[in-house]
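Researcher: Let's do a round of design. I'm pasting the structure tokens now; please hold your answer until I've finished.
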């Protein structure tokens, strides 16, 4: 389903770009709609039920978008398409994928940086500069600590993993020794 969610997110990103909409604002409103969908069992039941007429589902959508303050008619229509095509269950994932798509289009990428201990500001800046140089993109870092690394860091950017940890180096040495 991730491929389907990505396809819908790309389509919404295209609509945002074509209509010159405020992308962060639309993304925030989509997050609010997705949160409401996840938090409300009643809303999920209404939008998912084949027994409820589409017109009633759209009325609920209109009431919710008015309450949240959705200003882009295109976003309301996008959600209506998800309801009409029985894809509304994908709303939370599409919301996440939209962030990834919008960041990709403006040259930003998320990176999960895991270190054995807390990194100082100088270390973080140097690492971010090197990652930006390697990827050619602006890095949006998300930091975590994992004492099992022993030392060093691992970084995941998209599907690429950079392993500069002591644990990773020991594993590579072990592999080389067993191959010989």
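Researcher: That's everything. Go ahead.
Model: Designed sequence:
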């Amino acid at each position: 389903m991730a491929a389907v969610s990505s396809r819908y997110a790309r389509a919404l990103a295209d609509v945002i770009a074509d209509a010159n909409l405020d992308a962060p604002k639309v993304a925030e409103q989509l997050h609010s709609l997705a949160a409401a969908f996840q938090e409300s069992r009643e809303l999920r039941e209404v939008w998912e039920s084949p027994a409820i007429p589409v017109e009633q589902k759209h009325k609920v959508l209109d009431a919710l978008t008015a309450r949240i303050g959705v200003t882009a008619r295109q976003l309301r229509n996008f959600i209506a398409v998800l309801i009409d095509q029985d894809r509304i269950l994908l709303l939370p994932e599409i919301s996440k994928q939209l962030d990834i798509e919008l960041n990709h289009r403006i040259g930003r990428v998320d990176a999960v940086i895991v270190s054995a201990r807390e990194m100082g500001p100088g270390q973080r800046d140097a690492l971010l500069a090197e990652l930006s140089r390697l990827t050619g993109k602006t890095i949006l870092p998300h930091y975590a600590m994992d004492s099992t690394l022993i030392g060093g860091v691992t970084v995941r950017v998209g599907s690429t993993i950079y392993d500069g940890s002591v644990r990773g180096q020991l594993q590579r040495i072990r592999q080389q020794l067993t191959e010989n």
